[in-house]
Specification:
By secondary structure, the chain is an alpha+beta fold. The protein has 1 helix and 3 strands. The chain has one domain. It has a 3-stranded antiparallel sheet with strand order 1-2-3, covered by helices on one side. A hairpin with a 6-residue loop joins strand 2 and strand 3. The radius of gyration is 15 Å and the shape is elongated. The two termini are 20 Å apart.
């Protein structure tokens, strides 16, 4: 799956913080901008994988699953 999201980065004191605008809970921090960027990608992957696994457990085996694409500006 390839998706495009908006990453937001800010310097807070000696740390950088980052979050994904579209998905609550995807946030991280790092001592450098490069570190926070790596951490944020990892956090996004983990949240998406976890949400998918939880959704699979929650719905029945008869549920219909299919990809959905949208264009957002």
């Amino acid at each position: 799956m390839i998706g495009q999201f908006t990453a937001v980065y800010m310097k807070e004191g000696r740390w950088y913080v980052g979050y994904v605008e579209e998905i609550p809970g995807v946030n991280t921090q790092g001592k450098t901008l490069a570190e926070v960027k790596r951490n944020l990608k990892e956090a996004l992957i983990l949240v998406l994988e976890t949400n998918r696994a939880l959704a699979h457990k929650a719905h029945s085996k008869h549920a219909i699953e299919e990809p959905i694409s949208i264009a957002v500006e």
